[in-house]
Structure formats: structure tokens, C-alpha cells
Design brief:
It contains seven helices and seven strands; from the N terminus they run βαβαβαβαβαβααβ. It is α/β, with parallel strands linked by helices and 247 residues long. Helix 5 links the parallel strand 5 and strand 6. Bound molecules: nicotinamide-adenine-dinucleotide.
Length: 247
């Protein structure tokens, strides 16, 4: 049986990825610092084990890996946070926390896991970035966009260094997703409609849309895709000129 580690597994997108992997026959290690929520998620997912850990602490991650007890075939770095506010009002601590979870945490977990994968000569790592890490920072999102750009670039560097070890690495950049940290935006129908109108295919994505791409990247069908950042956003990244008129 193949196995997979998912960080941020107590969250909206992470729990959906873990559910999809379990349905495809994976044993799934659920990493998150929210142990209460993690237990709830574990109870719903067959063949899963909750591994409470703070991904910003290497010791905590290594304890989780010991508890998992196997070398992971795959790792999805999905844990992430955002601290809203204008740059001039941001506290240094908030900025630092976002860097620590989104970027440093991705680095720590990936290195701990890649050391094990290297011994096996194979592995598959998928890092969840965001369209805000591309060319379009969102206003008042603090360090978030900068860390997500960092995750995309770190993924490329991992792919360069670890490809020869048999470890495939890719990133996924989700767009507007009605789940987890963004779910509140879609409670108000007026706000939802406004956002839907900004997406060329006129709909908001769901956590399952991201889980589907993760499953593809984990599969042999994607075996020659390496070092890519796959944008999953209904076309929103390409829509910057959508409202410019042409005769
Ligand atoms: N929801 C969206 O619209 C959207 C869009 C683009 C990218 N993303 C990215 O997708 C990923 C998942 O987002 P989500 O919407 O499911 O958010 P979420 O808040 O539901 O899940 C994030 C999870 O990360 C966990 N976490 C935070 N700090 C941690 C730490 N130090 N150690 C271990 N776990 C920690 C949280 O406890 C939480 O369960 C994030 O990386 C996010 O940036 C989300």
C-alpha cells in the first residue's frame, strides 16, 4: 500500500486531499497543529493516522515522522496561514509568523521527508502555493503573497536538487476556492457573485478541484511533470485585461 503525508490536514483543502488519497488506497498521515480538529478528520478518513505537529519546529516534525513509522511515498505541503492588514499596519510578529508557517514550514517538512525518500530512491512532493504568489499580489494580505512566491521558487529549487534522487517535486497554485481560510468570503451571496464574475469560467473552485490535481501529480500519468507550478484558478490569472474594451 502506498502512503502519503499531508500537512494542514485539519484544514479545508488538506482534509479533502487526505480524503481523496484514502479513497485511492493510500495510507494517509495527517499533520496539523490543531490536534482536536485533526482527531475529527482522522475519524472520517479510512486508513489515516493523526500526527499532531508544529511544522515550524524540526523536532516536532521528526516526532510525527517517527509516529508515522514508514518512509512516505508522497508529501503534500498544504499548511498555511494569512494575517490580513496593510503593510504599514502589520506587526513584525504577524509577518514573521506567516513566513515561518508558509515558507520555513514547507522547507522543514520537505527536508525531513526528502532525507527519507532519498534513501528509498523515490518520492513525490507537492507544495501548495497560491495565485497570489504569481504576478498578482492581493492588497492587505501582508506577507502571504511573498511567502507563496517563495513556495513556488523553493519548489523549483527542490526539483533541481532532488530530481536526481528520484524525488519528483511540483507546486499547485489555487485561485478562488470556497474552503478553509477563504470560506468566509463566500457566505455573502453578493460577494460570491462578484468574485464568480471575475473568473473566466464564472465559478468559484472547491477543495476537490485542488485534490483532483494532487491525485494526478501523485499518479504515474504525470511521471514526466517535474518542477512545474500548476495554476488551478478557472482562468483568473489570465483575466487582468478582461474588462478592457475592444471594437
Ligand atoms: N482556500 C483558498 O482559497 C486558498 C487559495 C490559494 C491557496 N490556498 C492555500 O491552500 C492551503 C490550505 O488552505 P485552506 O484554505 O485549507 O486553509 P485552512 O486554514 O483551512 O488550513 C490550513 C491548516 O494549516 C494548519 N496550520 C497552520 N499553522 C500550522 C503549523 N505551524 N503547523 C501545522 N499546521 C499548521 C492549520 O491548523 C489549518 O488546519 C494553504 O497553504 C493556503 O495558503 C488556499
Amino acid at each position: 500500500m502506498k502512503n502519503l503525508l499531508v500537512t494542514g490536514a485539519a484544514g479545508g483543502i488538506g482534509s479533502e486531499i487526505a480524503t481523496s488519497a484514502s479513497k485511492e488506497g493510500y495510507r494517509v498521515g495527517l499533520i496539523d497543529q490543531n490536534s482536536a480538529k485533526l482527531k475529527e478528520v482522522e475519524a472520517k478518513i479510512e486508513n489515516s493516522i493523526s500526527l499532531p505537529a508544529d511544522i515550524t519546529k524540526e523536532d516536532s516534525v521528526n516526532e510525527a515522522l517517527d509516529l508515522f513509522g514508514e518512509t512516505p511515498d508522497g508529501l503534500v505541503n498544504c499548511a498555511g496561514i494569512v494575517r490580513f492588514g496593510s503593510l504599514l499596519d502589520q506587526q513584525v510578529k504577524d509577518f514573521e509568523d506567516v513566513i515561518n508557517v508558509n515558507l520555513l514550514g514547507c522547507f522543514i517538512v520537505s527536508c525531513c521527508v526528502a532525507r527519507l525518500m532519498k534513501n528509498n530512491g523515490s518520492g513525490n512532493i507537492i507544495n501548495i502555493s497560491s495565485i497570489s504568489g504569481g504576478k498578482h499580489p492581493a492588497i492587505h494580505s501582508g506577507a502571504y503573497a511573498a511567502t507563496k512566491a517563495g513556495v513556488a521558487m523553493l519548489s523549483e529549487q527542490m526539483s533541481l536538487e532532488w530530481g536526481r534522487e528520484g524525488i519528483r517535486v511540483n507546486a499547485i497554485s489555487p485561485g478562488f476556492i470556497d474552503s478553509g481560510m477563504s470560506a468566509d468570503h463566500y457566505v455573502d451571496p453578493v460577494e460570491r457573485e462578484k468574485r464568480e464574475g471575475m473568473v473566466p469560467i464564472q465559478k468559484i473552485g472547491e477543495a476537490q478541484d485542488i485534490a483532483n490535481v494532487v491525485m494526478f501529480l501523485l499518479s504515474d500519468e504525470s511521471s514526466y511533470i517535474h518542477g512545474e507550478n500548476i495554476i488551478v484558478d478557472g482562468g483568473v490569472m489570465n483575466s487582468v485585461l478582461a474588462n478592457i474594451g475592444r471594437n
